[in-house]
């Protein structure tokens, strides 16, 4: 009470002064009072002193301390940069590289934003067609994979090429392409007018996580299948990017790229081969003498955009493993 009263008097007396001198005036009397009550029992805690003593005599402990503080700082920085969100979601920064010959191929910023929105919806399980997931697959649906995407840059470059191959030329400046932006830290997406592989038109292709950080690391998509507005039906709902980014995050084709193959995920029923178009549910395949209803509505099948609307929990685990701080694509968590 005495301290408060004194403070109030000083405050009244000094009210015409600026706040700096006011606080200076306030500090001295308070210190004096502290000194006069030095023998009062005050709160004390010895943790830091005890720690310092222990650190002095134990090198292993010192090393653990340094690592602890470094990890803490790293985590705080990741939060600050928005790369690892408060709920543990990793927000992958995306660079879109557009190589265009025609105006239509020079996809608009709005269409790029639309594509990022599709990726975010599909990878968080908030896509509006998630309600079409059959009851039998609802229990193994991934829901939120805890991966999101954020556009950080768009690079545009005119080209005279009408068609590109899967030989990564679009990623080489010497071939008229655009070099990847820091592929360890950014998901690079290249958009080209048209792509072919072995004489056939393809929608896109991706590198798997063993290529993390290499010059050719990323996803290539042909412009007609990128985004939604102005895209080419039936691949005009942005699902080509969802599928290719699935590969980029270590997901295989759901049929395991072989007859009755293995996609390394246990909750996706073994199926004979790829499905196309809009299959009607249920669709049964027999592999190894066992008949199963297959998950053709999975993003990693080949069905039309409107017919794919889920990842499985097993696929989520693979994605999570890759973007974990110990994973092949942990660089995506850091700038
Ligand atoms: Zn694929």
Question: Could you please describe the fold and organization of this structure?
Answer:
The protein has 335 residues and is α/β, with parallel strands linked by helices. The protein has a domain at 90-252 and 308-333: Collagenase (Catalytic Domain) (3-Layer(aba) Sandwich), CATH 3.40.390.10. It has eight helices and nine strands. The chain has helices at 2-13, 19-36, 47-57, 59-81, 109-124, 135-138, 239-248, 313-323; strands at 90-100, 147-158, 187-192, 196-197, 200-201, 204-206, 219-222, 284-287, 290-293. The strands form three sheets. Strands 2-1-3-7-6 form a five-stranded mixed sheet. Helix 1 (2-13) runs antiparallel to helix 2, helix 3 (47-57) packs across helix 4 and helix 5 packs across helix 7 (239-248). The protein starts with a helix and ends in a 12-residue tail after the last helix. The structure holds zinc ion (ZN). Zinc ion is lined by residues 243, 247, 253.
What does this entry show, briefly?
With 335 residues, this protein is an alpha/beta fold. The protein has helices at residues 2-13, 19-36, 47-57, 59-81, 109-124, 135-138, 239-248, 313-323; strands spanning 90-100, 147-158, 187-192, 196-197, 200-201, 204-206, 219-222, 284-287, 290-293. The chain has a domain at 90-252 and 308-333: Collagenase (Catalytic Domain) (3-Layer(aba) Sandwich).
């Amino acid at each position: 009470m005495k301290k408060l009263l004194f403070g109030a008097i000083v405050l009244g007396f000094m009210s015409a002064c600026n706040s700096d001198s006011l606080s200076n005036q306030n500090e001295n009397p308070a210190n004096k009072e502290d000194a006069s009550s030095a023998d009062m029992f005050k709160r004390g805690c010895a943790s830091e002193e005890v720690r310092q003593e222990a650190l002095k005599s134990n090198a292993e402990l010192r090393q653990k301390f340094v690592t602890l503080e470094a990890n803490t700082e790293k985590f705080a920085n990741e939060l600050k940069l928005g790369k690892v969100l408060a709920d543990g979601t990793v927000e992958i920064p995306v660079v879109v590289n557009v190589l265009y010959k025609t105006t239509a191929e020079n996809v608009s910023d709005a269409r790029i934003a639309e594509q990022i929105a599709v990726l975010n919806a599909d990878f968080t399980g908030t896509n509006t067609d998630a309600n079409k997931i059959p009851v039998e697959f609802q229990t193994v649906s991934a829901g939120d994979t805890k991966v999101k995407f954020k556009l950080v840059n768009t690079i545009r470059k005119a080209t005279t090429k009408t068609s590109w191959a899967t030989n990564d030329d679009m990623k080489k400046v010497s071939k008229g392409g655009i070099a990847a932006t820091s592929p360890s830290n950014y998901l690079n997406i290249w958009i080209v007018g048209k792509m072919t592989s072995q004489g056939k038109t393809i929608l896109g292709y991706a590198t798997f996580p063993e290529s993390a950080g290499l010059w050719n690391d990323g996803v290539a998509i042909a412009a007609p299948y990128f985004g939604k507005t102005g895209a080419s039906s039936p691949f005009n709902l942005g699902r080509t990017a969802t599928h290719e980014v699935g590969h980029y995050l270590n997901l295989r084709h759901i049929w395991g790229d072989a007859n009755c193959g293995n996609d390394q995920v246990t909750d996706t029923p073994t199926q004979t081969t790829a499905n196309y178009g809009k299959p009607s549910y249920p669709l049964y395949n027999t592999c190894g003498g066992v008949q199963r209803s297959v998950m053709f509505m999975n993003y990693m099948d080949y069905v039309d955009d409107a017919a794919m609307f889920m990842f499985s929990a097993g696929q989520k685990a693979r994605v999570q493993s890759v973007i974990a701080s110990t994973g092949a694509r942990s660089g995506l968590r850091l700038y």
